[in-house]
Each structure stands twice: as C-alpha cells, then as structure tokens.
C-alpha cells in the first residue's frame, strides 16, 4: 500500500550515490556508491572509524549527507521536501545499545510507538507485539521490565520492537558487540531467521561467521570508502585487497595480530573463524 513516488529505483531497498559526509574539516564518507536489493542481506565490515555507522545513519537521515543521493524504497530521502518521518517509519533500526524505556514493560515498549506513530489501538498493537515477541523467543517476558532481562534478551526485545512497526527494511549497527559472548548466539539466531523470512537487512557487524553464513554480500569499508564488496565467499574468504586482508586477519585472530581492540566473534575460537583456505 505504497503511495510515495516510485522512480526506476523502486525495486531497490537502498540506493546510495556519491555519498559524502563531513563533520567540520573531517571527511568521514568520501564518495560511497552502493545499493541493497529487496530481500538482500548486506553486511558492512571495516575498522573502527571507517564510517560504517555514519553510512547507516545517512540512510535514515540521522545524519544529513554533505553531498550525494540516498534513496530508500523508492523515496529519495535526500530530497529537501521529503517527509522523513514517513520514510523512517519504514526502516527498522537496531543499535548496539538497546534504548528500551526502563520504566515500561516489554509489552509496553513494543506497543508505544505502534500506538503513537501508527495510531494503532491497544488490542491491535498488543497482537502485533505478541507475535513479534514470539518471533524472538520471548513470549514469557511481556510483563518484565528491561532491567530484569539479560543484554541478549533486551536486544531481542529491541528487534521485536522494530519489527512491530512492520518495517520494509532493517538497519543493524553492531547489534551484538555490547553483549557477553554467551548471549551473542541468540541474537544472531533471531537475525538469521529474519533473513530467512526475506527481510531486507543492512548489518554493520564484526561477526564474520554471521557475515559468511547469512550475508548475500559483504561490503568492506576503510577510510570512508568502499574498498571491496562481493559475496562473502570472495570478500571474507578470498579478499582481493591488502587492506581487507589486514583487517580480516585482525578480526579473525586478534591475538595473533597482537591487537585486542576489535571484538572477537561470539564465543567461538579463532580457529573456527578463519576463512577457508
Ligand atoms: N557527530 C559526529 N561529529 C564529529 N565526528 C564524528 C561524528 N560522528 C562520527 N564522527 C567521526 O567520524 C568517523 C567515522 O565514525 P563512525 O562512527 O562512522 O565509524 P565506524 O566505522 O562506525 O567505527 P566503529 O567501528 O568504531 O563503530 C570517526 O572519526 C568519528 O570520530
Ligand atoms: Mg560504528
């Protein structure tokens, strides 16, 4: 039931063209071109400070691009006349920090935006909320408060909250990197099942096993540009650029590289994380 204009890019979930973003004198995105098709899962990887979060934030205009064009589900969000609230309603966003309301129960956290933004009545909002709590495996937690849940459970609530708005696509910014290793798997399992259900997903992550198993495409960013992109079996397992190889060596085996600032993937050991030879 779409009423927005639908230009030639309407089949695409996200189209980014010539995107530049500067903060003062610091140029963070230096000309990004990429797109995400409907139903596609794209993982963005790259070193700290390479501009991954800024790219995601430009997609839903949490950051205003300095130059370039961003189109989401056929609507140009960089058009000065765009109704950005309307576009954002179609985009689910999940951050590293869960941003749940601490004074509201899980069920209330899931219904508040449905009622205020989508104007659903309580019964309809609760129906949708319960269906999405079931989807993330937390039906038994609807009366709990966020502080009574583990980090992994809170992140699954945050995902269920985003899903309750029935978004056309989901953006994830390192959704598991604040979690204890033993809690990462449950969140990734939820994301994997979303991908299997055909959700369009753009995911910034350090979880290389997730990227390899679930992503249709992996985008490697460094220094504000896309260095290479392609199917995970090429970019992760057989990178073409030295910068990609250096980054992957650090993420996949930080101990061997003598570095520890990059979070290690889940509870798995580095052995399992190495690309196939
Ligand atoms: N609001 C802001 N004001 C000024 N500089 C910013 C702002 N947001 C980001 N930056 C800078 O832009 C650069 C890219 O930041 P960004 O958060 O996009 O990187 P990232 O790839 O997501 O890194 P990480 O892996 O650490 O999350 C960094 O140098 C950062 O300090
Ligand atoms: Mg970031």
UniProtKB/TrEMBL annotation:
The UniProt record lists the ABC transporter domain at: 14-248
Q: Entry's InterPro entries?
A: AAA+_ATPase (IPR003593), ABC_ATPase_HisP-typ (IPR030679), ABC_transporter-like_ATP-bd (IPR003439), ABC_transporter-like_CS (IPR017871), MetN_ABC_transporter-like (IPR050086), P-loop_NTPase (IPR027417)
Any Pfam family from its record, for instance, is ABC_tran
Task: Could you list this entry's UniProt keywords, alphabetically sorted.
Answer: Amino-acid transport, ATP-binding, Cell membrane, Membrane, Nucleotide-binding, Transport
Q: Where is this region: Disordered?
A: 258-277
Task: List, alphabetically, the PROSITE patterns matched.
Answer: ABC_TRANSPORTER_1, ABC_TRANSPORTER_2
Topology with regard to the membrane? Peripheral membrane protein
Q: Does the keyword Metal-binding apply?
A: no
Q: Name one GO cellular component term.
A: plasma membrane
Q: What is its EC number?
A: 7.4.2.1
Q: Does the keyword Ribonucleoprotein apply?
A: no
Report which reactions are catalysed by this protein: a polar amino acid(out) + ATP + H2O = a polar amino acid(in) + ADP + phosphate + H(+)
Chief subcellular location: membrane
The enzyme's first-digit EC class, named in words, is translocase
| Cellular compartments annotated | Cell membrane
What GO MF terms are annotated? ATP binding; ATP hydrolysis activity; ATPase-coupled polar amino acid-transporter activity
The text of the family note is:
Belongs to the ABC transporter superfamily.
Q: What is this protein called?
A: ABC-type polar-amino-acid transporter
Naturally occurring in which organism (per UniProt): Streptomyces paromomycinus
């Amino acid at each position: 039931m779409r009423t927005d204009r639908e230009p030639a890019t309407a089949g695409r979930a996200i189209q980014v063209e010539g995107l530049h973003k500067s903060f003062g004198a610091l140029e963070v995105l230096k000309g990004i071109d990429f797109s995400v098709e409907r139903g596609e899962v794209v993982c963005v990887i790259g070193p700290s400070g390479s501009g991954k979060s800024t790219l995601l934030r430009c997609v839903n205009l949490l950051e205003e691009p300095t130059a370039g064009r961003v189109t989401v589900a056929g609507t140009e969000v960089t058009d000065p006349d765009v109704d950005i609230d309307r576009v954002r309603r179609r985009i689910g966003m999940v951050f590293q920090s869960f941003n749940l309301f601490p004074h509201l129960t899980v069920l209330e956290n899931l219904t508040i935006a449905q009622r205020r933004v989508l104007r659903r009545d309580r019964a309809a909002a609760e129906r949708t909320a319960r269906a999405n709590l079931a989807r993330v495996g937390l039906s038994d937690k609807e009366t709990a408060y966020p502080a009574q849940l583990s980090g992994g459970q809170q992140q699954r609530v945050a995902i269920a909250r985003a899903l309750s708005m029935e978004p056309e696509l989901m953006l994830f910014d390192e959704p598991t990197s604040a979690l204890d290793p033993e809690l990462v798997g449950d969140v990734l399992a939820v994301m994997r099942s979303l991908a299997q259900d055909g959700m369009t997903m753009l995911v910034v992550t350090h979880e290389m096993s997730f990227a390899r198993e679930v992503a249709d495409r992996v985008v490697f960013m460094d220094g504000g540009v896309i260095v290479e992109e392609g199917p995970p079996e090429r970019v992760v397992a057989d990178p073409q650029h030295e910068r990609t190889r250096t980054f992957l060596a650090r993420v996949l085996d930080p101990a061997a590289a003598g570095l520890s600032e990059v979070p290690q993937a889940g509870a798995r050991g580095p052995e399992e994380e190495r690309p196939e030879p």
